[in-house]
């Protein structure tokens, strides 16, 4: 099943979501990702754009994710979260990057860094 994602700053991107199975049912990944995006971006040198998105590749290099979770597991949590806590887009262009953000962003995050 192809899913369309739209962000007013980007083109519509069609991606195949990861398979829905038990890997997306891991609350620890969801908690770690939410904490990273909302509270711990500064301590982990994670750049958050003004629109709240961070590079998934950068998140996967942090100590909370490196070697603990696969990129497929994190993507599955973003796609299949029952409360839609996360948004994931893929920028159009030559060097495409997956970007992820927490949908209910705390104010502490937005005062940090600018665009990357």
Architecture overview:
By secondary structure, the chain is of the alpha+beta class. It has a single domain, classed as Orthogonal Bundle (Arc Repressor Mutant, subunit A). It contains four helices and five strands. It has helices at 27-38, 56-60, 71-80, 107-110, and strands at 3-5, 13-15, 54-55, 86-90, 98-102. A three-stranded antiparallel sheet has the order 3-5-4. The chain has a two-stranded antiparallel sheet with strand order 1-2. Strand 4 (86-90) and strand 5 form a beta hairpin. The longest helix has 12 residues, at 27-38. The protein is globular and about 35 Å long.
Topology (elements, then pairings):
Elements: E1 3-5, E2 13-15, H1 27-38, E3 54-55, H2 56-60, H3 71-80, E4 86-90, E5 98-102, H4 107-110
Antiparallel strand pairs: 1-2, 3-5, 4-5
Highest CATH level, the class: Mainly Alpha
The end-to-end span amounts to 32 Å
Roughly what percent helix? 25-40%
Number of contiguous helices: 4
The CATH homologous superfamily name equals RNA 2'-phosphotransferase, Tpt1/KptA family, N-terminal domain
CATH architecture label name: Orthogonal Bundle
């Amino acid at each position: 099943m192809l899913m369309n994602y739209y962000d007013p700053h980007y083109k519509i991107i069609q991606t195949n979501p990861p398979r829905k199975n038990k890997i997306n049912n891991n609350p620890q990944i969801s908690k770690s990702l939410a904490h990273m995006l909302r509270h711990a971006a500064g301590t982990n040198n994670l750049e958050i754009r003004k629109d709240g998105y961070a590079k998934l590749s950068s998140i996967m290099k942090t100590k909370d994710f490196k070697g603990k979770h696969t990129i497929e597991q994190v993507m599955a949590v973003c796609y299949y979260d029952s409360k839609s806590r996360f948004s994931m887009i893929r920028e159009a262009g030559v060097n495409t990057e997956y970007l992820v953000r927490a949908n209910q962003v705390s104010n502490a995050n937005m005062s940090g860094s600018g665009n990357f």
